[in-house]
Amino acid sequence: MSRLFKSFFRKIRLYLKITRAGGIARRYFVMNGFDGAMTAFGIILGSWIAGVSKPQIIILAGLGACLAMGFSGFFGAYMAERAERERHLKELEEATNNHVDPLQYEASRFVEFYVALIDGLSPALTAIISITPFILALAGLTSIANAYIASLILSLITLFLLGIYLGKIAKENGWLYGVAMLVVGAFTAFIIFLIQIFLGA
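Structure (tokenized):
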């Protein structure tokens, strides 16, 4: 079994190296993970300010956002990546007089799906992290008040960790990137508060 896994991951690394798609996948992960975390953060903060007391409402809103972002991200990225890979393969065929290494076709087909999967899963996963406390509240394992606090903390931690990861990709100070992500979260919270004040006026 371990040999199969090692062989599988070696093949993935080879495909990513051939297609140079590693950077694309990382960018999709951070960008869409950020979108998922911020969407969940906005839903939860808005629900808290509005005084929503039923965890199922927040869970449904969060899961709905997860599904929407996941499906749109997957199919949008798949179609876009497929178009780019088809164009690249045709250019290779023209340059080599149709003597393209079959591995190029294998790598392209794999990367189309791989990149789309990351694009679709990353926002869904980060959003699910944020709504987990409300699932616990629905099960009676915690109160709705504690769920709000835990969820907002998890959202901010997710943003911070995405920032640190982004900093590592850039080979710069990850903590600064993490703080920058938190600032974005704080700014979003401020805007939501302003909207609430305006609508409540």
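Helices lie at 2-19, 22-50, 55-96, 102-138, 144-169, 174-200. The chain has six helices and no strands.
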